[in-house]
Amino acid sequence: MLKTAVVILNWNGIKFLKQYIPSLIDFSSTQTEIYVIDNASTDESISYLQTNFPQIKVIINKENYGFAKGYNEGLKHIDAEYYCLLNSDVEVSSHWDDAIITYMDQHPEVAVCQPKLLSFFHKDEFEYAGASGGFIDKYGYPFCRGRLFSTIEKDCAQYDDITEVFWATGACMFVRGKVFWELGGLDDDFFTHMEEIDFCWRIKNAGYKVMCFPDSVVYHYGGGTLAMGSPKKTFYNFRNNLIMLYKNLPTNRLLPVFSLRFIYDIVAALRFLLDSGVNDFMAVFNAHIAFIKTIKQSHLKRKKIQTSSAIVSKMYKKNITVQYFIFKRKKFSDLNPNDFV
User: Fold this and answer.
1) pLDDT tens digits, residue range 78-108?
2) Are 12 and 81 in a shared domain?
3) What span, in angstroms and rounded, lies between the C-alpha atoms of 227 and 268?
């Protein structure tokens, strides 16, 4: 069994492979092996890797399975104590992997861990997709230490403490291989977006911890597959978020959360209509329709998840949209620490 397998999921991403693979090889530990799972690319990704980096092992999926199933299918061929799911558009830095692995070796209760995620373009700023660890409020809306909605903070070491979080970014997520398979991996039906938050919630329901380890730093290009502002991205984010809530919420929280969530999503759709047009507006409603169609299947998944009547650790007990838009709390540090479970 390998100690650590760094695994990149690729789909027509030769641009990013050319840009980021060299630093990944230079800065990765000698105990780390690098894999690329290819989702049936039609560009020259595979031939490029085979010609220029023969030491990288390539696993080829039969079709484009998306993020979740793409990883699930590819990881079946890799036996490792730790997986690092790494986006192809991430630049790593010195000791980025061995520091986290050492920490996880010393803390068996930790099943998932992420580094600090900074912007590739503005390396003194946090990156949208994970910053210094992710959280959700009680209605399922995600945010990060270093990023609330569109407000992205500069990194001034204000979030450099090793801390428990609710979710780790799928852009760079270390996970124990044994736990990954115990929980059935990522949810295939998500295709893309929110699958890492759903997975981390299931990790917590199973009694493990999710951590952010900011001593390790990586830089994310961002938007390499679906750009910000894409109606398709809006659809997947809202649909998958609703599925995630239905699967993981304690039974006594289902009705109150979904009753208010429907109202909040109408408000969000109207804001999309004003800010970005009718396509994002319709994406929210199409997401709700698609969610309703998944209820039966999601209920079967819910029955397999061990939930209690208690809310799992590090969930924000208030509504982050109200705090941000009404009370103007624009930074994570503006939030009251006592409002986290």
Assistant:
1) 999 999 999 999 999 999 999 999 999 999 9
2) yes
3) 19
